Amino acid sequence: MAAVYAADGSDDRETALAQLADGELDAVCAVDVFNEGVDVPSIDRVVMLRPTESSVVFLQQLGRGLRASDGKDAVRVQVLFVTVDPKRDTQALLAQYVPAFHPDFLGLYGDEAATAKASKEFHVYAHERPGKDGAPYTVDHSAHIYVIDREGKLRLLLPPGTAPAAIASDLRLLLNS
């Protein structure tokens, strides 16, 4: 086990991640140094010490669910990350950000009018909140995953916190039906 934290005496973050991925470590204990965007694709499990409704963690869980899927079912699933913040989430930013969760994920971007229309049609909550003390604004938003079949029919609505194994199982059932 490695202990990674923001102070003297911490194990090296990158070394700890490499050792975890290579199977040399069973776990990395981290405090205040791993943001929610860290992912180790070779690991199909994650232990959260606090509940989260973060859409970033949710995308990581979906990626893990696809990696845990037996056979080639994951190849038959196309994940689309749709931004609710077109002012900040540019096409270039999405092209860098989204594949970090899984190399086959795609980011979708629309202008403010298209984003508002899609948000309304899918009943997505998104509200821009001003930053405090000069900090940038934040966007509060819902974080469900919509599973839509090839005919465009909504088949599943997965809430935040759905376990990767449950995601993989549900997708497998849909793919084989």
Count of extended strands? 8
- Span from first to last CA? 42 Å
- Counting H and I runs of at least 4 residues, what is the number of helices? 5
The parts where pLDDT drops under 50 for at least 5 residues are 45-52
The CATH homologous superfamily of the largest domain: Glutaredoxin
The CATH top-level class label of the largest domain: Alpha Beta
Mean pLDDT over the full residue set? 76
Q: What topology does this entry show?
A:
Blueprint: E1 2-5, H1 13-21, E2 28-31, H2 55-68, E3 80-82, H3 91-97, E4 106-108, H4 112-121, E5 126-129, E6 138-141, E7 145-148, E8 154-158, H5 164-175
Parallel strand pairs: 1-2, 3-4
Antiparallel strand pairs: 5-6, 7-8
Helix pairs in contact: 2-5
Describe the structure.
The chain is of the alpha/beta class and 177 residues long. It has two domains: 1-34, no CATH class; 48-175, Glutaredoxin. The chain has five helices and eight strands. The strands form four sheets. It has a two-stranded parallel ribbon. It has a two-stranded parallel ribbon with strand order 3-4. Helix 1 links the parallel strand 1 (2-5) and strand 2 (28-31). Helix 2 crosses helix 5. Residues 45-52 have low confidence and may be disordered.
Short description:
By secondary structure, this protein is α/β, with parallel strands linked by helices. It is 29% helix and 18% strand. It has five helices and eight strands.
